[in-house]
Task: inverse folding
């Protein structure tokens, strides 16, 4: 089955003083779906060798979730932020990374993953 790979621009939101200037600059993120490796998972590669793999279904639920009730409860949480943005929050032992995307980029990626492998055959 085909691998779906999509490049997106995102903003890494932080409250540390040394990165406040970088907050305004979009960074490249690679969105990847490999149905042969794991049909239920998507991967996000952030700058600095930060790679996160999580459920494709979590990404979809998060894009439709109310902002006050993000989808996810473990190391990854997803929720809409306004009408055109979405937030993906990553937790690890070193802290929290909050990444803001245009919702349409994440929706386009999800549509492409469902074309590669529909939900009914992913499990």
Result:
């Amino acid at each position: 089955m085909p691998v779906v790979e999509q490049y997106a621009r995102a903003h890494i939101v932080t409250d540390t003083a040394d990165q406040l200037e970088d907050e305004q600059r979009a960074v490249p993120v690679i969105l990847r779906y490999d149905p042969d490796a794991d049909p239920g998972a998507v991967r996000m590669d952030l700058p600095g060798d930060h790679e996160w793999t999580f459920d494709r279904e979590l990404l979809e639920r998060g894009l439709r979730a109310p902002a006050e009730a993000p989808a996810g409860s473990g190391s990854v949480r997803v929720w809409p932020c306004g009408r055109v943005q979405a937030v993906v929050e990553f937790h690890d032992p070193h802290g929290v990374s909050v990444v803001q995307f245009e919702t349409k980029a994440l929706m386009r990626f999800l549509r492409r993953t469902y074309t590669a492998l529909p939900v009914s055959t992913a499990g």
About this structure: The radius of gyration is 14 Å. Residues 4-121 form a domain with the Transcriptional Co-activator pc4; Chain A fold (CATH 2.30.31.20).
